[in-house]
């Protein structure tokens, strides 16, 4: 009976109720969105690279080096020389070294020059190696290995030809069309920026930039003058700090060596204040919406005196009126919370591919996890708490006025 009366009462004031529900839904959307995206970004960044002891590049900030070399975000302010790469890769502590050269793109996707060792040594997640869903690694110049997302979005298959462009923007007016590339391999999905990358040989990168035109000299070995960064695996983890010091004190040119895990920790420390500020703003927006709901219930008290008098006339106790107001508040909050959750979940499904292709960020669908249920419970609990004021006032009015209705 209580539920039926509460539903009928809310329906009778449906316009005001719908606006309140929408306000709460927007607040829940923001609150859950901030929390989910924060957690997903941490997970996405954390699983991007594993098994790499050091990343070495031209001296810059550790976060900047991490972002452009691993996450393909931003650009290098300077390159390191090929001679420095060879010197460091031949050090006794080094088990393997993989060069990376960035700066070109294809239809908005990054092109990365590297060697065959990249497919052998690069790992992600829990030390999972790269694998091919089709084809094989490049064996020479003008051959390309595509990330899973690139191949799927652009519809490429083994044997197709493509032309890469100068620069990293989505639109380029400088194309290296004199040197078309043939697709030799397509990588299996990894859920990392690897999926949005076209991989070519270092020789190919040097070839297309040597003359800016003319014909390819396939009999010439195209050794690069410089690279963007290098990934380093050491024979012993104990030697990491020693080799990092050697890199940072390198005499031939100013270089920086970073440990991916440490650099990620520094990144999250930088982002911590922003995360807390966003969470606080989301909570304040939610509180404002719930206070708006309380105001609506208070404003409706005078209009509902006759309704309350009728309920008392048919034998309802004064406490029934209190429970009615509380139930209405809970129903409004619950409807807003569910609507906000469904809206966020739907939007994430729609934007999932766009976020991964444009920014290399993998945001999974919103799960109905323990933390999500906790937030929804908190919202309903706050609504019930804030609704106590109009509920108590209704209770007191029901006791004092009984069937007397003001005219």
From TrEMBL:
The keyword Lyase does not apply. The keyword Lipid metabolism does not apply. The chain crosses the membrane at residues 15-34, 277-301, 308-325, 331-351, 372-393. It comes from the Bacteria. It is a multi-pass membrane protein. GO terms for cellular component: plasma membrane. InterPro entries: ABC-4/HrtB_transporter (IPR051125), ABC3_permease_C (IPR003838), MacB_PCD (IPR025857). Residues 18-240 form the MacB-like periplasmic core domain. Residues 280-394 form the ABC3 transporter permease C-terminal domain. Keywords: Cell membrane, Membrane, Transmembrane, Transmembrane helix. It is found in: Cell membrane. Signal peptide: none annotated. This is ABC transporter permease.
